[in-house]
Amino acid sequence: MSSSSAASGYAPPFLQAIGPPQLTPIQGSAWGAVSTAFIADATPTALTAHTRLRSKYQVVVDQVLNGVRNYTWTSTDGPDAYFGGGAEQFIAGTGSPGGKDFYAEFAKKGYSVSWNKTALLAAPNDKRALGIFCKSNFPVWLDRNVFTDNLGTLKNDPSGADGPAKDLPGLKEMTLKAIDVLHTRGGKKGFFLMSEAASIDKQMHTLDYDRALGDLLELDDTVRATIEKLKALKILDETLIVVSADHGHGFGESLPLSTAPQPPFPIPPSQHQPTNPPPQTSSAAPTPNTPRPSTTTGTSATRSASTRTRVSPSTPSPRKASATARAPTSRSTGTRGT
Please, what CATH class does the domain formed by 29-251+302-326 belong to? Predict the structure, then answer.
């Protein structure tokens, strides 16, 4: 919800039916983003970037820290917590904004800088925090926790050294640390946090169901741990948790047309041909009763993002993508964070 619509009291029709809006702008409160993607990817930088081309990674990372500087736009002084991959945009060189050391640029503005889980957990909660833990996207949960030998062949050290990134945090560790920082820094004004399990989508693009499912389960475990964290901080009742997806995928089976089930009997022409088909370009007469391949491409099964299955922490159930926002602590105004 935009600050202008919240400030003016405008509500879309579905909210007008249930009363005045109960949401307030987050400007002035703490905010952060966590992702298992490279941090210049579309979802984390959508919170700050204004560009015609999402692949302008140097531009969007500069805008994260410094805002849009070449014309009037919503001002920002940088996030309070920013954790993910994508060290290429921070190591001084062709991939970073202006070729600068952007770790140093963040440090100049008062950020702690972490390259591994140990440093992240030790970072002070009252200070703005940057955590970049590898080049490119995070290795997926299955490789970080089961097929760990796969990590040794990578050259993704966040410092730029030749070798693999070590002591990687997971989505849960990054999210819980971000909540600590944001809760401390936001105080009575509350906070907003976007936490992305990015590789559910990325692994589904390559049809790697095992790795996609592993990251989906990691997300579900993160949601469970987030709820417990908010309970411990005694702010669960005043926090809105939204679990959603930028776009969804189905875990199921698809068959190419060549192997799809064939009809057991000829299909009448009227079911698969136009009433007045165009003239045949071949001299051979058409054979309308010849069986044709079925257009069935298989079945898929999806789990709704709203479905919740309570399980033990060691066996989390699937979810989609998540964002967490904490409202201002004053309940007298009846406000809630977005």
Answer: alpha beta
